[in-house]
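ok new one. same drill as before - structure tokens go in, u give me an amino acid for every spot. 65 of them this time. try not to just spam alanines like last time pls lmao
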């Protein structure tokens, strides 16, 4: 099996409070990508300022073929 990988980075919906919620628009995009054969391998929270989760980086893959 050969895999193709991509990264999808999402700004947290409420990075000021540190809640780190994923915006609904990002969930819609992830569902669209799933319809194209992409699957989430991992999600990594990225704290860039003051320890708050400002972004979530999704690593996606799909089978080449």
């Amino acid at each position: 099996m050969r895999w193709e990988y991509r990264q999808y980075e999402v700004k947290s919906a409420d990075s000021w409070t540190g809640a780190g919620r994923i915006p609904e628009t990002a969930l819609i995009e992830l569902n669209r990508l799933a319809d194209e054969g992409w699957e989430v391998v991992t999600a990594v929270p990225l704290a860039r300022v003051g320890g708050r989760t400002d972004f979530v980086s999704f690593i996606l893959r799909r089978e080449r073929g």
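The chain has one domain: 3-63. and btw Strands lie at 3-11, 39-46, 55-63.
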